[in-house]
Amino acid sequence: MRRRKSEGFKLKNPVKFVCIIVSVSFIIIQIISAIQLRNISQSTIASKFPKINLSRDSKIGKFGENVMKMLPEDLKFTLFLPSERAFHRDLRLNQNDSNAYAVLTRVLGFSAVPRWISTADLENGKEMVYDSISGYNLYVSKDLNEMVVVNGVVSEKVDLKMGNILVHVMDGVIMDAEFELSVQPDDDEDE
């Protein structure tokens, strides 16, 4: 005679059953967490990461403001920002230049470091090497006047904290040789 199969659920392997229960519970928790994450108000996020009020920080200039707007506000950066005069003098950049955004993006790549580097972190005359966000080596030191020197360019203002960004205003533009050649005037223009 044949045995009759039981009609109800028979637990053959309790380990598999526990694994299934744990997996289903984990998925439910993930779904609930995702729903709760959506419910966080934007004001809560804004209070943790205050906006930078660039209009009152005119000491960095219009080009400086544009470069700062390119950085995320919720991460710490040090920005070796060229002064407004350096943008005009070294890059011949004007506000209505069609290529201004591309130039400012390159400047950002050479002059931003994803960490804070204050004058207190530097020893007089001792050079430290940091990588910019584009991978360009920055040789940073502090001179006897407590000014930051980066790749031979001396700062005008130091340790300006703007949100999570620490700014040193430089009297020049930090750039590699290739970019420097690309922004130099053509010799044909003088003739």
From TrEMBL:
Query: What top-level branch of life does the organism fall under?
Result: Eukaryota
One Pfam family name is Fasciclin
Q: Which SMART domains match?
A: FAS1 (SM00554)
- Cite the FAS1 domain residue spans from the record: 41-174
Coiled-coil annotation reads none
Show the PANTHER family listed in the entry: FAS1 DOMAIN-CONTAINING PROTEIN, FASCICLIN DOMAIN PROTEIN
Task: Please give the family membership noted in the entry.
Answer: Belongs to the fasciclin-like AGP family.
The entry's protein name is FAS1 domain-containing protein
Q: Which organism is it from?
A: Buddleja alternifolia
